[in-house]
């Protein structure tokens, strides 16, 4: 199972659309994960139409229309892998311990908000992933997203992709 993981797209405020490379990944993915800050419901509609399966949450910049359609926390079983998605996890300091406490029944937690790529493992085995942003790099050197594979309850081939400068 191939995953595409993104967050903080802020379309159309920070970009008119997702980069073409990301749309190609949508077409290849079995599951698209979006960790919030969509900004406009039009992107949700388009991702729902173009994705085989979409797992998404709302973020702090998402208004009532997105909040009516998306949860604050999404959970899914992906071929035995217990996945949770949330927009915010709080400060970086203590993140692993805090998230391990708050998500004890999860194998992988995808989050966003900071626009800073993150890949760590908490004591006890919870993997925390933040894909950064494909459209709003803020102080990061590049726009980014993640891909990964899931098989028999295991996450593998987690790859951070940097997008060409626009």
Automatic annotation (TrEMBL):
PANTHER family: VACUOLAR SORTING PROTEIN VPS29 (PTHR11124). Its EC number is 3.1.4.-. Its cofactor is a divalent metal cation. It comes from the Bacteria. It comes from Amycolatopsis thermophila. Keywords: Metal-binding. Belongs to the metallophosphoesterase superfamily. YfcE family. This is Phosphoesterase. Signal peptide: none annotated. Residues 1-151 form the Calcineurin-like phosphoesterase domain. The keyword Transport does not apply. The lineage of its organism: Bacteria, Bacillati, Actinomycetota, Actinomycetes, Pseudonocardiales. It is an enzyme of class 3 (hydrolase). The keyword Metal-binding applies.
